[in-house]
Amino acid sequence: MEHANIATGKMSISEAHCKLGHISHTAIRNAISTGQIIGIELDMDSKPEFCEPCAKAKSARLPFPKKSDTHATKYGERVHWDLWGPAAVQAIDGSSYCAARIDDATREMKLFFLKKKSETEAAYKKDEAYLENQTGRHIKYMRCD
User: Fold this and answer.
1) Are 114 and 98 in contact (CB under 8 A)?
2) Which domains, and CATH codes, for the chain?
């Protein structure tokens, strides 16, 4: 039987760990001794070395909080903008894009239907003027992707 990628020479346990996809050292020794992996001569005296990729992969991260502590308290203080499109089918008025403004304090959403992506800035300025005229407040923060 012919084999591709047959290793030659003795290999340390850490080398085998890296070459075999970072599986555990115990699993490597077991697979070689039971014949599940052939063609690798393992240096049984070698000691496992620290593996930085494995340590990074196992690093713990705190989960995202269930509730944000930084919500805006006033209408219009912080708004989120998102642009969607182009749509597969144009609307009757020719719109292919939709810009959404979400107020952080009230979660109110306002949609702007646009024919071109380049109309987004004009829609934002129109909405900014609307908020200032209706509430007397200025947008303090605007978030978008």
Assistant:
1) yes
2) 10-57 (no CATH), 78-144 (3.30.420.10)
Q: What is the pLDDT of residues 41-53, one digit of tens each?
A: 888 778 888 888 8
Rounded Cα gap, residues 80 and 102, in angstroms: 5
Would the pTM of this model clear 0.85, i.e. be above it?
no
Query: Is residue 13 within 8 Å of 27, Cβ to Cβ?
Result: no
Query: Exposed, middle or buried: residue 104 (CB in 10 Å: 0-12, 13-18, 19+)?
Result: buried
Average pLDDT value for residue range 116-121: 94
State the alpha helices, DSSP H only, in 3-101.
13-19, 25-33, 52-57
